[in-house]
Each structure stands twice: as structure tokens, then as C-alpha cells.
Amino acid sequence: MSETAQLKVHSDLLDIEDEPFELELLRSPYSLRSWLRYLSARENSTLEKRVLLYERACSELPGSYKIWKAYLEMRLAHLEGGSFVSNPQAFLDVNSCFERALVLLHRMPVMWHMYLKFVMQQPDVTKVRKVFDAALRALPVTQHDDIWMLYLEFAEEIGGPFCIHVYRRYIQLEPRAVESYIEVLVNLELWNEAAHQYLDILNRPVFLSSKGKSNYQIWNEFSQLIVQHPEDIEQIDVERVFRAGIHRFTDQAGKLWTSLAQYYIRLGYYEKARSIFYEGITTVMTVRNFTQVFDAAVEFEEQWLSMRVENKPSQLKDEIGVDYHLSWLEKLLDQRSLYINDVILRQNINNVDEWQRRTTLVGDDREKIVQIYAEGLQKINPKLSIGSFGSFFSNFAKFYEDIGDVEQAKVIYEKATNVPYNSVNELAQVWINWAEMELKYQNFETARKLIGDAVQAPKRSNISFFDEALSPQVRLHKSAKIWMYYLDLEESVGSVDSTRKLYDRMFELKIATPQVVVNYANFLEENGFYEDSFKIYERGVALFSYPVAFELWTLYLVKFIERYKGKQFERGRDLFEQALEGCPSEFSKSIYLLYADYEENYGKVKRSISVLEKALKDVTPKDRLSVFNVLLLKVAFNYGALATRPIYERAIEILNDEEVKDVCLRYAEMETRLGEIDRARAIFTHGSQYCDPRVETEYWQRWQDFEVKYGNPEETVKEMLRIKRSIQVKFSTNTLNIAKQVASMETPLTSGDAMEQLELSQENSKPLAGFVASSTGPMGGIQQTNVVEQEPKNPDEIDLG
Length: 801
Prior knowledge:
Structural class: mainly alpha
Strand content: under 5%
């Protein structure tokens, strides 16, 4: 349109209301504020007029972002919901506006974003691609993210090679987007390209998944892709890739071995798949992985055989192949336990128990059994072995012994004695097993010589049995286990003198145990060397401290008493004194009682009683009551009841409070039998201070019965009641006794604390039966029983019966 025509159109569209804005623009044509006010005032005008105003504003201010953005939004809003097919020229005009705006505003990402969204609605793919490329060239890299999101969305919508081309460009900028690219490739069934992209990911030293996948998940997806589409994979060494995954993910090795075998099965390479299965079975490290591979291998063999059998092979060659694979399947199933044993041994080659179990899995095949034993002895590290490596050697020797080759068994035992075991006891057991084999064939002297050579040592040995820095062979002569066996062997086939030498040798080496002392003493006693056996006991009590010395002293004293029966009385008394010297109080009770019996039976009763009186001071508090009972019986039996009074008094002084009340009851009962009523009452009074009336009801009942029978209601009964009340008050102020009393109540209360329960028990306490108060009744004190029952009970009433 010519300039004259534009002026005519301009003048036709203007009206009287535009005059102020036009005059203002004549004065300042480059004022952004003036143009914005003008455009805002004409928002409701016709499209033609608004377009004209925006065009004039853009021509005057071509670099104004606000005017161009508002103009383009107005043009986009006008075309919203329209179709390019029905009105292509309108879309092309808007394209032209965008291109003019972007001449100066090409650094504005919002403008590009608006243009791209608009142009994506048009069917011209080339145009859209060029606009995207122009946007990426114009904007800095930091502002490319939004552009690429639109670009990828458009590419996925178009699909085909165009989408692949776009994604290849994008992953050069953002390598982590390769997972989305792989998904696109899978959707497009471009399996080879997807596999190569997976391989590129797996070859990266570090890869952080944008979708939160672990490395194993990526490996699993890759393996599934290869297994499902093996024919489409090219230029990838699949087996090498899978083996790298197996080496990397050892806990998932079973699944990867199975996937590799399935890859070859789909390609038709059955023999290769079979070898892969076998390699997986013999290399996996866990039972779970083994189960996966083994089950898959069995399933493959069964399916292959079923397929061949259904085809009914007519040729002899096919029949032979079926028979071969059938025998292979049977062998695979038969050796499952052996394969599992292999897995466990691969986890720890030093597992001796599994090696031993392996010998039982091959049945009666002697050649395989020998091979397993030889392999195990070669591979097991004795210092790291789990289980008894010595037993493994012994079982190997026993195997040869069972088949009749004793000489070979001896050779194995000889080698076994030179192995650096974990412990000395293992080595000792090997020597013992060797000697047992010799004894089985009546080679007694050979067995004695074997054990004698094993324990041979210098006259004085300073070697410690627990010094792990030394080999077991050096410390073997300090092993009590092999010495005990040597002693048993010597007692069975040797002489008394040779056996005594062995026992003495153990004392020299300082390896004698309490059991050795007892055995040596019994051995000498059985052979008539009584005094020598006593000397052994004396050596034992000198070697060992308490409590072991207590057991030895007890045996020694009993044996001495049985032997001499008081003939060497003074010697026996000295032994008892030695035993008690330095004896801890917790062990002295038994010796004191034995000493007292010894004095009573073979000495003087008075000395026996003095021994028990000394024991009352030396034994522990918990043992004093039992000693007191013994002492009381001896004094009463030998000197009568009156002589026990000092014993009772002494017991009351030294026993604890819980035991004193029982002693007082017994003492009072004895005095009552002797007719000493006043002394008995005084004893009851003394013992009452240890007895809470609300807890120790038996004591107070006994005292009450005593007063009913022997007391005076005017004096003694009232005095007992007064004492009872004072004792009750005394114990009521003691927290420990309050808790004890509450715990002893027969009927539990549902509410209230311990003090409330105590007060309630005091209020409900029963009166002494048989008595009434002296101020009641016509007889001044004593009432008939039936009268008392008809009147309210008095807390202090006593029934005299």
C-alpha cells in the first residue's frame, strides 16, 4: 500500500476522540508512555484500528519489548481456535510479525517461546525446525532448556528419523537425557541403536540416572533388550558385556548367567547355551544364584528333550543325541547336592565340615573320595580353617584303614602330626586317633611309644601352653588332653612304676589339674600306696587355691579318717588345723563339722564342742544357725539340757535378727519344760524386740499361749500387751517393716497406700482370746465364756479357758 493510501486509511479510522492522543504523539512521537496510554484507551476498538495503532507504535519504537509483546499477544488471541488450513494467510501474517519483532528482540526467550508455540500449530515441519534452530542460535545456552523441552515434545509428536535427529543433538548438550532417547528408540523398535546407547551408559565411569534408576536396573533393562531381540543386535560383543556385568554384580550373577544363556537359545546356539549354563552353575557364589541358574538349565534341557522326542527322530544319529542329552540331564539332577557343596566351598574354601560332607556325596567311589581328601588337604589353610582340620586328616586315615590299607593310614597320620593347626587340642586329637588305631590292632607298645614321642620335652620347660606365637607341636607337651590319654593308656598296659613316673612328670611340667591329683591319689590307693596317696593330696592343696583346695582337703581328710580311724589322732588333728588355716569362711563350715565329728568319735567331746564354738565365729553368718543346731544337739546329748543355756545365750548374741526369734522360742520352750517359767517369760520378752506383731504372728501367738497357761491376767498378761503395743509402735516408724507387714497381708486392699493398709490392719487386729478386762463383769475379771460371747469384744480381753 502506498503512503497516500496509508494516510487515507489512517484518516478514515481516526475519530474526534483520538485527537488528544494524536496531538501528544506529534509533540513526542518516541514516548513509550504516550503510546501505551493510546493503545490502552483503544483496547475495545476494531481489530483493524488496533493493528494500525500497533504497527505505527512498532515502527516508531521498534525495540520496545512491551509494545511488541502486547501486539503479538493481541494477534495470537485473534487467531486462537483457528485453523491454518482455513485461513493460512492470517497465520503467515503473524509469522511475519514475529520475524520482524525478533530482528531486534532475538535475545528475548519469551518472544521465541511464543513464536515456537504458535508455529508448532502449523503443518510446515521444515518451518518449525528452522524456527527452533534459529531460537537455539539466538539465545544463550543457559536459556535453552525451555526451547529444548518444546523441541523434544514436537519431535516426539512427529516421530521417525526427525525425532532421532533431534534427540541426538539434545543428548550432546544434556548427556543424562540418553534414557529418554532410549525410550524413544524402543518405541520406534530401533533395538540396535537402543542397545548401543545402553552400552554407552554402562561404559561411563559415573552415570547418574535422571529417572532414579540404579546401575543394576540399567543392566537388567539392557540384558532384557538383548535377550528379547538377539537378531537385531549388531557390532556388540554380547558375551563380553554380560561377563562384565556378572563380575560387577556378583549378587545378581545367577540372573545374568541365565539371560546370557537365553540369548544363545534364541539365536539357536543350544550347545553354547548349555556350556553357559554349566559355567554359571560352577562359578556362582551364592545358593540363591545357583538355584536360579540350575533351575533354568534343567528347564532348558527338559524343553529341548521334549521338542526332540515330539519330532520322533527317525535317524540313528538323532536317537543317539537324545540319549546323550537325557543322560546329561540325569547326571545334572543327580549331582545337584555336589554343585551346592561347590558353591559353599567357593564362599569359603577353608570350610572343613563342607569338605567332609563332600566325601559323602560321591557315594562309594573310592577314587573320587581320595581325590576330594587330597584336594581338601591341599587347599585348606590350617590357620583359617572352620571346623576341625585334624578330624579331616583323621577321617582320611580312617578311610584307608577301613579299606585295609593300614600302612597308608599311618603315612597320613604322620603327615597330620606336622600340620600347624589352630589349636593344640586338634594336634593332640590326631595323636590320640593314631594311637587308637594302633590299639585296635593290638600294637600296645607302638601306641605307648607314639604318645611318648608326642609329649617328649626337656626336663624343665618354660613354654606356655597359651602362647599362640608358638606352633602347636612345640606346645603339645603342655596339653592336659594328651597327657590324660597317656595316663589312661599307661594304667591299662603299663606298670605301676611307669604310671607313677608319668604322673610325676605332669607335676614337673606344671600341667597337673585337680582331676589329675585325685586320679593319682586314687591310683596309689588302689595299689596299696596309702601314704604316697596322702602326699599327693598334700601336693595338690599346695598347688591349688580355694575353692579347688577345699575339695582336695575334703577328700584328703575323709580318706585319712577312713584309713586310720583315729589311730594317728594327733596327725589327723594337725591336718584339720592345716586345712582350716587360711580357709575362707564360706568353705570352712564342712571342715569344721567334719573336725567336730572326728574329735567326738576319736578324741574328747569337750574338744569337739570347742571346735563347734570356734566355728560359730569363723563361718559366714548364713551358716551359723546350722552350726548352732549341731552344737546344741551335741551339748544336750552329752551334758544335758541345762548345759545348753550358754549355747542359747551365745547364739542370741551372734545370730541375725531373723534367726534370733526362732532361737528364743526354742530356748523358752526348753526353760518351760524345766519349770523355769520366769526365765522363759524373760526370754519371750527379749525375743519380742525382733518380732513385729503384725508380721511375726506365730511368735506372739506362742507367747500368748504361754501366758494363758502360766501367766497372771492382772500382771503378766497386761505386761505382755504393753510390750506388744510398744513393739508395734516401734516397728510402725520403720519404713522397711511397714513394707514387710503390707507384703505379708493375706487380703489385698483395692485402694489406699501402704500406711492406710497398715492403719486398717491395726484397727481390725484380733484381741487375745480367753481374757476380758478386769473392770467388766460382776466377778471383777473372770467371766464365763458364754457371757463374753454375748457382749462386745474388748481388744484386751483374754480367755483363761
